[in-house]
Structures are given as C-alpha cells and as structure tokens.
C-alpha cells in the first residue's frame, strides 16, 4: 500500500513481506538462525554444523553479492543459449531491487555476558590495514523512520486506514523520533510472520531492561542526582501522556492490543531509545536522516575504546559492522562500538548504564586551585589534545593498570593552567592538588552512602530490581571517579619533582 506520506522508503519496488527465497549457500557466510524462544531470554548462538570456518572479508570492496544473483548470470553461456549474442544480460543491480535478504555474520558469536547479550569474536583476527566486515544487515530487516517531512518509514507494513498510522502522523518527525519508532515497533510485533515478531523474543524483557524510563520514583532517588531524576520523571510523563492520549478506552482492539497498558509502551520506548541508530539514507537526489532499529547490530555494547564501527553501504542498502583497521582481535574478545562521547548522565538517560572509567565524565570543581596541565599529563603518560587524549601504555613500565579512562577524565575535568613554556612550581602544584583533593572529599561526603555501602548493597544476595541496581551503580561510579582523582593527585604530588 502507499499513501503519499507513508510510501516505501528507498525501494522502488515493494518487497514481499519477509519471505526469503531459497538461497545458494555461501561458504564463507555463517548465518544465525533464530531459535524458538525458551524460558527466559534466549541466546542467539546457532552455528550451522557443517559450515567451514568463515573467511573474514576485507571492507571497502564493492564485490558482487553473487548470492543474490540468478544463476544465469554466474554461469558461462551455454551452447544452445536461446538468446542471440547481441543481447546482453541486465545490470546485476537490476536483480537486487527489492530482493529480500538475510543478515550475515562472520567470525562472531552472540552470548549472554555481564552487560546482557553481547557480541564476541569466535576466532583471532590479525590487525589489517583495512577494516573488516563482521556483520551485514540489509535494510529490509530494520525498522526505519525518517526525521524530516515528508516523513517516511520502512518497511511499509502499516495498512491504509490503520489507526497507528494516524498516531504516528500526529507526532513531530524531528523531535518525536522515539515515539514514532516505538509505535512502528509495537505494530511490527503484531504483524503475523513479521521478522520483529521473532526477533522480539531476543530483546530484553521489562525486568531485564536497564532504561530509567522503567524506573519507579524510589529507584530514581537512588541516583542521588536531582537533575537526572527530574529529567527522567519528565521523560516518563511525556511517554505516559502520549500513551494516555492515544490508547484511551474506546479505541479499536487492533490498536489497543499493541500497548494494552502504559508499561508496554514505556518498554517499547526504552527499546527504541537504547537500541536505535541514526542513518543517513539517500532518498533519490537528497540525503535523509533516519532513525533505525537494526537487528543483530543492536546487540553490540558500548566502549569508548571500541574495536568496531558501523558503516552504511549505500549501494545495496546494507548496514555493515566492521572491525577497525589496525585492531587485533583475539577469540573471546567482546566486539563493541562507541555509542557517543558523553558524560555518564547522558548514557543513563538514553541507555541506562554508566562507567567508573568513562573518559568523558565531568566533575564540577568550584575551587580556584589549578594544576599544571602538561605536568599532570606527562606524569601519567597521557598525550594528545583535549578531545583526543590517549594513554601511551608503551611508556608505562612495570606499573599496574592505574591509568584508565578515569585518569583521562581527571585530565579533562580538573581545573588546569598552561602558559607557554612557563614551568610548574612543585610547591604551588602540591598546594593546588591538595585543595582539589579536599573538594573531592567534600563531594564524597555529600552522598548518603559510602563506596563500601554501595558495594555491599550490590553484592547482597537479595533480589534487586534492575533499575535500582543501575541507579546505585551510577552514584557508585561517580564516587569511584572522585576516589580515582584523589589517588591520581597523590601520585601527581609524588612525581611532580621528577
Ligand atoms: C544496544 S543494546 C546492546 C545489547 C544489550 N547488551 C542486550 O542485552 O541486548 C544497549 C544496552 O546494552 C547495555 N550496555 C551496552 N553497553 C554497555 C556498557 N558498556 N556497560 C553496561 N551496559 C551496557 C545497556 O543495557 C544498554 O541499554
């Protein structure tokens, strides 16, 4: 179906709704097969028994995806070819239009880890000069909504006249991308044989989801961050108001069953916010920003030092997950991408996690004390400009792993000075370092619990709600960073003379 506002995104021909034609086996492609759901959250691992180890492809090659071509194009012409020699086969791209494809994965496994489902290397990968593909996900498996008018979504699964269409249409494409994608996701779950009906079994349930959209007020208070708690209460209210406005009592059953209660809508919104990516899609002559839920790639966890990145292949509308050039990967390593460079509260707001070693975390110091930036950096063998600071581990001899993202965050967030070649005066530097340590201690004391008490709560055997756990971890991570800064300033004072 096609209405002016809901025409199929990108594809000139309508796709069959996820009917996958029989494909020839590609020896290097290892396919992941969705298993029927088991009790609890199922795992995605399913290595086909007879598949030889996949050869990792090099990125950037626009190789023929011969898997999608009809056999005729791949075979030498036959003697009794009925076509006269002046006739030429059509461009291979012709056959790709609207072809329903599956995802492919190379040299990876999907496993349940400490941070939920995650992607791990199933073999060693030597560092290469070019990036390597580990996953390919075709557009037709994604749920996608464009950000600008005339807005479009893909796949075009909503029948003309369905009330969910009007609900999506009533939102602002530029600001309400998450509400719109949540509606599309809920609708996709309800469409028989839709890919997302199966994939939904592998998404975190309400109890497993870390999003603070699902946190009761008591859990938000555990954050001990009034700004973040207020923001999350506002975000919850926005979602509940939206649900109440559109899922009122007298709506037709086909709409009501998509989100019978507001918790279901909050869950769908949590999934969308914590798992979608921004894509730039080519729409005829111009580029369109779109938000997309990309299955399988959404199992990648975040790391500020990620070994992988996402790449959109315009030509055949395929999202690739690639290992960065020059990165060695060992079997069992987690494959990660960098979601964004942000402070812990931003990660909490959208994804529901924080880290004590987030190199972008900020502490607001009010003291006038400042330490000498270059001296501090050289004590810890940190180099680079403010936005690209990195630890040169090769210069650090026999010295445990003290320098981590927390020390990089300290270098960014501590008040510092630097005036050309003017050297630091050790006695003044020590005084400043001590003043800053004092302030860290004061901030630590302002929390209602200590580091040890938080750790005891998290280690206790009793069942702890997921959102309470991540709220306690958030305040703990802030305290651990403050402690790390205190320790780093101790080391700085010891070494400033040498
Ligand atoms: C895109 S999903 C990644 C797959 C997810 N682990 C799962 O179980 O399906 C994002 C979610 O993964 C978790 N996550 C990702 N990176 C993380 C990290 N570095 N630390 C803790 N949790 C993380 C958070 O729950 C986040 O909302």
From TrEMBL:
Protein source organism: Oryza punctata
One GO cellular component, as annotated: chloroplast thylakoid
Record's keyword terms, sorted: Methyltransferase, S-adenosyl-L-methionine, Transferase
Biased composition (Acidic residues): 58-67
Region (Disordered): 30-67
Residue ranges occupied by any SET domain in the UniProt entry: 106-340
GO molecular function terms noted in the UniProt entry: protein-lysine N-methyltransferase activity
GO BP terms in the entry: chloroplast organization; methylation; plastid transcription; thylakoid membrane organization
Stored InterPro entries: Rubisco_LSMT_subst-bd, Rubisco_LSMT_subst-bd_sf, SET_dom, SET_dom_sf, SETD3_SETD6_MTase
Keyword match Nucleus: no
Protein name, per record: SET domain-containing protein
């Amino acid at each position: 179906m096609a209405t002016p506002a809901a025409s199929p995104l990108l594809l000139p021909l309508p796709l069959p709704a996820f009917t996958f034609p029989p494909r020839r086996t590609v020896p290097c492609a290892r396919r992941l097969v969705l298993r029927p759901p088991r009790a609890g959250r199922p795992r995605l691992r399913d290595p086909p028994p007879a598949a030889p180890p996949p050869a990792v492809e090099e990125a950037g090659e626009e190789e023929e995806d011969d898997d999608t071509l009809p056999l005729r194009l791949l075979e030498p012409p036959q003697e009794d070819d009925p076509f006269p020699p002046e006739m030429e086969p059509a461009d291979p791209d012709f056959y790709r239009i609207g072809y329903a494809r599956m995802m492919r994965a190379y040299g990876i496994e999907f496993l349940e880890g400490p941070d939920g489902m995650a992607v791990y290397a199933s073999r060693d990968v030597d560092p290469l000069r070019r990036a390597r593909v580990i996953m390919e996900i075709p557009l037709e498996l994604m749920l996608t909504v464009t950000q600008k008018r005339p807005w479009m979504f893909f796949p075009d699964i909503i029948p003309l006249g369905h009330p969910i269409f009007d609900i999506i249409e009533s939102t602002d494409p530029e600001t309400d991308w998450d509400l719109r994608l949540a509606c599309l996701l809920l609708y996709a779950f309800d469409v028989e044989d839709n890919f997302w009906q199966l994939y939904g079994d592998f998404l975190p349930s309400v109890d497993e989801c870390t999003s603070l959209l699902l946190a009761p007020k008591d859990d938000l208070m555990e954050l001990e961050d009034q700004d973040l708690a207020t923001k999350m209460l506002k975000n919850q209210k926005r979602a509940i108001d939206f649900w109440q406005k559109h899922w009122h009592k007298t709506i037709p059953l086909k709409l009501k069953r998509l989100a019978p209660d507001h918790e279901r809508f909050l869950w769908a919104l949590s999934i969308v916010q914590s798992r979608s990516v921004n894509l730039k899609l080519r729409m005829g002559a111009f580029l369109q920003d779109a938000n997309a839920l990309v299955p399988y790639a959404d199992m990648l966890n975040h790391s500020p030092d990620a070994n992988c990145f996402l790449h959109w292949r315009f030509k055949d509308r395929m999202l690739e997950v690639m290992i960065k050039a020059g990165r060695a990967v060992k079997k069992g390593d987690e494959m990660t991408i960098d979601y964004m460079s942000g402070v812990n509260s931003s990660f909490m707001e959208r994804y529901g996690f924080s880290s004590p070693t987030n190199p972008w975390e900020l502490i607001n110091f009010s003291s006038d004390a400042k330490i000498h930036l270059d001296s501090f950096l050289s004590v810890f063998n940190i180099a680079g400009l403010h936005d690209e600071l990195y630890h040169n581990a090769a210069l650090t001899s026999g010295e445990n792993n003290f320098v981590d993202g927390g020390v990089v965050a300290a270098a960014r967030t501590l008040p510092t000075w630097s005036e050309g070649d003017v050297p630091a005066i050790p006695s003044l530097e020590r005084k400043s370092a001590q003043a800053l340590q004092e302030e860290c201690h004061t901030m630590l004391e302002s929390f209602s619990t200590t580091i040890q008490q938080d750790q005891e709560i998290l280690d206790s055997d009793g069942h702890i709600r997921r959102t309470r756990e991540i709220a306690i971890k958030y305040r703990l991570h802030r305290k651990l960073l403050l402690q790390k800064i205190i320790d780093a300033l101790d080391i700085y004072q010891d070494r400033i003379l040498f």
